[in-house]
Amino acid sequence: MNNLFLPLGKLPPELLAHLISVSHISDPRVLLGPGIGFDCAVIDMGPSLLVLKSDPITFASEEIGWYAVQINANDIATTGAEPRWFLITVLLPENATTSQLVDKLNAQVNSACLELGISVVGGHTEITHGLDRPILVGTMIGEVARDKLVTPRGAQPGDRVLLTKGVPIEATSILAREFPERLFSHFSEDEVRQAADFLHQPGISVVQDARIATRSGCVTAMHDPTEGGLASALWELAEASHTTITIDVEAIYLPPLSKRICQFFDLNPLNTIASGALLLTAPPKDAEIITHNLEEEGIICKEIGCIEEGDPLVRQKGETEPFQRPLRDDITKVYE
């Protein structure tokens, strides 16, 4: 440990691992607590399991109420659970908050929850000193039958690695919404508008992706690529399942507009915040059925690699050196 300032974004993996190692859990009903690659906690409630998740909205500023619901629901869905109940903490800037803004944020939250069948059951709202924009922190609670629970540690050697929709959907929308004037120098208004709408089309929700996948066959693990992008998500999945993941970079789908916008900002699309894509593993025969059923519903799904026995690491097909793990999300460079 030292006194150097930490960079913008997630904590360094070593520091996060230290914090997790000193976490104390005394309740035996906690089936899954904090861990690298574990985005949700799981509590044994008898006939069913409760799945809990908390996440803030930090990079986005538009439609953040709607956004907060989707991001938290995504992680619940990756466990095979249905998101049921939502609590939201809303911190609002001093001398910049109106009742109209509060009503707008509230409407966004309730609209998103109504769409997904989620009940808003509580939270906290206040005007907070020292903020220059609203900050939202959501807590989502889901429910799943004991025999339907999926966790990142379930990936098995021989499984195929699948990715829905492509990457980085979330970053494409954030960059178009937060920095449109910079994009107008190289992109048309229609392209910037289309990029901004990636929030909804193809969309940052993976709830439907997870529902279709789990109903189609045996899903051994699921993970939601958020900060650090797909590259970080692959590393987290490898560490959680104690396996080696071999990926084919050429098989990863990059929407053409996303690829161009990442090139414009000099971002690696695999290292950039990527909600909207669902990373999952399944045995070969199940992977074929899952891919078919997702694409029948209009959701792009590509096989991008396989799970192998070995130390927890990610490597690229045909390479011997480990695939590079990002130290932080590439989108943070745009905010510096």
Can you give a write-up of this model?
This protein has 11 helices and 12 strands. It is α+β, with helices and mostly antiparallel strands and 336 residues long. The strands form 2 sheets. The protein has a 6-stranded mixed sheet, with helices on one face. Strands 8-10-7-11-9-12 form a 6-stranded mixed sheet. α4 (169-178) crosses α9 (256-265). The protein has helices at 13-21, 64-77, 99-116, 169-178, 180-183, 189-196, 207-216, 229-241, 256-265, 284-296, 332-335, and strands at residues 30-32, 41-44, 48-57, 82-93, 119-128, 135-145, 160-164, 221-223, 244-247, 279-282, 301-308, 313-316. It has 2 domains: 13-148, PurM-like, N-terminal domain (60s Ribosomal Protein L30, Chain: A); 152-335, Alpha-Beta Complex (Phosphoribosyl-aminoimidazole Synthetase, Chain A, domain 2), CATH 3.90.650.10.
Give me the CATH superfamily of the largest domain.
PurM-like C-terminal domain
- Name given to the CATH architecture of the largest domain: Alpha-Beta Complex
Helix content: 25-40%
Number of spatially distinct domains: 2
Return the structural class: alpha+beta
CATH class category name of the largest domain: Alpha Beta
Q: Which word captures the global form?
A: globular
What is the CATH fold-level name of the largest domain? Phosphoribosyl-aminoimidazole Synthetase, Chain A, domain 2
Number of E strands: 12
Order of helices and strands: HEEEHEHEEEHHHHEHEHEHEEH
Instruction: Please state the average pLDDT score.
Output: 94
Describe the strand arrangement of the main beta sheet, using strand numbers.
1-2-3-6-4-5
Q: Sketch the major β-sheet.
A: 6 strands, mixed
Strand content: 15-25%
Please give the alpha-carbon distance between the first and last residues. Answer: 25 Å
Given as residue ranges, the uncertain stretches (5+ residues, pLDDT < 50) are none
Cα-atom Rg, whole angstroms? 19 Å
